[in-house]
Amino acid sequence: xxxFLIAFLVFLIWSFFGLWLYxxxxxxxTSEENTTAAITEITEDSxxxxxxxxxxxEPVRLNENEADSLSLVENEDEVENQVELxxxxxxxxxxxxxxxxxxxxxxxxxxxxEIIIDPKLxxxxxxxxxxLIEHPNEELHIGSLYSASENIESPNLGFQRAKKIEKILLExxxxxxxxxxxxxxxxxxxxxxxxxPNGISFSFHPLDNERIEARKLALPETTTLYPKIVNxxxxxxxxxxxxxxxxxxxxxxxxxxxIEVIGHTDNVGNANDNYILGLKHAxxxxxxxxxxxxxxxxxxxxISKGESESIASNKTARGRLLNRRIEIKYYTN
Length: 333
Prior knowledge:
Oligomer: single chain
């Protein structure tokens, strides 16, 4: 009996010890189970991420360069105003895309319509022509700078400079109706010699058909020429050469155009002789326009008004000089 009691007591002691030990070990086991569950969840998420984009709840830390670039995006408008436009002769589309860009530009001279084209730029006209051929529904705008600090002229110096560029482009084969002159007035930082290296730019825009139709309907204004006359013969002069360019431009813009060359004289001598002299001068000018301008003779009519339509008094030398003139009038059938 005594031995039974001792054995039972020992059993109870070990039972309590076992329960205490079990309760002490229980939290560790739970943590292990949680860890196992967490690993399982991570494994499942990793598998899911193969087919789904990664979702980031926390901000991603960028390196210094990336942080700077992000700041630039946030201040895009401010940066755009600070960007320095490339210098040199350029042509761009209406969307701002560059068609070409040269490091050199077309220079202009202060108070002068003259332009200076570097030999490196000589093929710019062919590039413009090629672009228009490849894009028949677009037109070319010539941006030509002039400054309020320059001499006041009519037309303004920006227009005069652009006309010189237009002449080059017409000789290249670009149709006049595809060219639009855009004088741009702004402050120009001329150098000490009075030059500015980037006075001309080009841009392409959708073809304005309404403008083209209006151009066809508009007739050029009557032009008055005071020819160089020696022994009653007309000689070639800068004024006559300028008239030739105007007539060529007008005919190119409107193929249906007809031209009338009218000879006028002073009243010195016989009225009939003056009529014949006026007709002679008109025919000489017509011959020059036909041969040098490659204009059809059928488009040009030569007539004489003799001394009948004087515009000044024939009593003075200056008045007689003003009356000895050639008028160019335009009309359509």
